[in-house]
Amino acid sequence: MGMDVYGKNPKNEVGTYFRRNVWGWRPLWDYCEQMYNDLVGEVSGHYNDGDGLDDKGSLELANRIKTDLENGRANEFIVQRNKALSELPRETCEICKGSGIRTDRVGVENGMPDRELPQEQAIILGRIKGWCNSCNAEGTKDNFATWYSLDLDDLKEFAEFLENSGGFEIC
């Protein structure tokens, strides 16, 4: 799933269409809400219900993003976001219930309880066999929030779209 963002009155092809999958759209829109809530606070940006901004609002949002890209504020936001994500605790794997060995029907049918581990992994985990495809036999995995990513290129591309969209709607 993703968000399709359409220009209302595009000035060129760049302003016609912008898309991000859910893993990229949520942090992009979160950025807009956190940095420019006075401008986008009333937009239901996390829903594909046709909401958006008019041409004037789109241009203002584009200008603010570009300014933050130029002055380093956007980069600092991403650095702080990534730092916070890196400090989140790992989560217990829901597939193997934290054991590192998938023993449900799918796991058994695919030989996961008996699968031999590479020597390096066996040394670290303290066992020679048993695997889970969800957590790579570790029993924990990265926090779900880390699946969502944001980088400067996302912001640059969105600003270019906004600048050329003539307003937009999120569908």
Please tell me about this protein's structure.
A four-stranded antiparallel beta sheet has the order 2-1-6-3. Strands 4-5 form a two-stranded antiparallel sheet. The protein folds into two domains: 2-87 and 146-170, no CATH class; 91-142, no CATH class. The chain has seven helices and six strands. The protein has 171 residues and is of the alpha+beta class. Helix content is 44%, strand content 13%. The mean pLDDT is 97. Helix 3 runs antiparallel to helix 7.
For the record, give the distance between the C-alpha atoms at the N and C termini, rounded to a whole number: 11 Å
Strand content: 5-15%
Share of residues in helices:
40-55%
Q: Which strand order spans the largest sheet, edge to edge or round the barrel?
A: 2-1-6-3
Low-confidence stretches: none
Major β-sheet annotation: 4 strands, antiparallel
The SSE order reads EEHHEHHEHHEHE
Write the layout of secondary structure elements.
Elements: E1 2-7, E2 17-21, H1 22-35, H2 37-40, E3 52-54, H3 55-71, H4 73-86, E4 91-92, H5 105-109, H6 119-125, E5 140-141, H7 152-165, E6 167-170
Antiparallel strand pairs: 1-2, 1-6, 3-6, 4-5
Helix pairs in contact: 3-7
